[in-house]
Amino acid sequence: MTTIGLVRHGITEWNVLAIAQGSSNIPLNKTGREQAIALSERLAAEEEWDLIIASDLERAKETAEIIGSKLGLPISRFDARLREMNGGQIEGTTEEERIVKWGADWRSLDLGMETREDVAERASAALQDIVKDYPGKRVLVVSHGGLIGLTLRSLLPEQFKKTLLDNTSITILKNIEGAWQCPLYNCTRHLEGKVFTQ
Question: What residues are paired with 4 via a beta bridge?
């Protein structure tokens, strides 16, 4: 059995402002770094992990590095397949700005966005490679909310009709003889009762 802990990165200023990030390389803000520290403390206290793999975008890299520093684990690799969905022309815009620019039905336009299917396909391939390369290991994968959600809906469509992942949430996937199970979804217990810098 291979266990994968899917972690969404800490919060960024663009998250706070509801600006589409996609593949834009936005760093964590101060709260995001504090969230990552809180998660790292939980992981160090509760569970043993063998290695960390992360998206190569800054917000995921920084989250992974904070966790790795606490756990004493280097980042084994940065994988571009774990990047957030490419948002094309909508990156850097809010919903209001998109409606002004392209109209209320902007989602029906070709704005250069990556398809959900393509995101799920590349992410699922990355996870299958982890299962193949690290059989029986416990692997933390630091990535992005949209990608994690689309991957869950692809791998476990009966369990996940829709998804919403919080910043620094952890979701556990287990691969047992080729079959996926998800015993923990979007858990943010490490953030409860915490007051973060604004």
Answer: 139, 173
Task: Round to whole Å and give the CA distance between 103 and 74.
Answer: 46
pLDDT tens-digit map of 136-164: 999 999 999 999 999 999 999 999 999 99
Strand partners, 140: 5, 52
Cβ–Cβ under 8 Å, residues 93 and 101:
yes
From the list 62, 84, 91, 190, the catalytic residue is 84
Site of tokens 């975008």: 57
Q: Among candidates 43, 66, 42, which has minimal Cα distance to 54?
A: 66
Q: Which of 9, 62, 91, 190 is catalytic?
A: 9
- In one-letter notation, the amino acid at residue 46 is E
What token pair was written down for 38? Answer: 């809180």
Statement: the pTM of the whole predicted model exceeds 0.85: yes
Q: Is 190 a catalytic residue?
A: no
The answer to whether residue 9 is catalytic is: yes
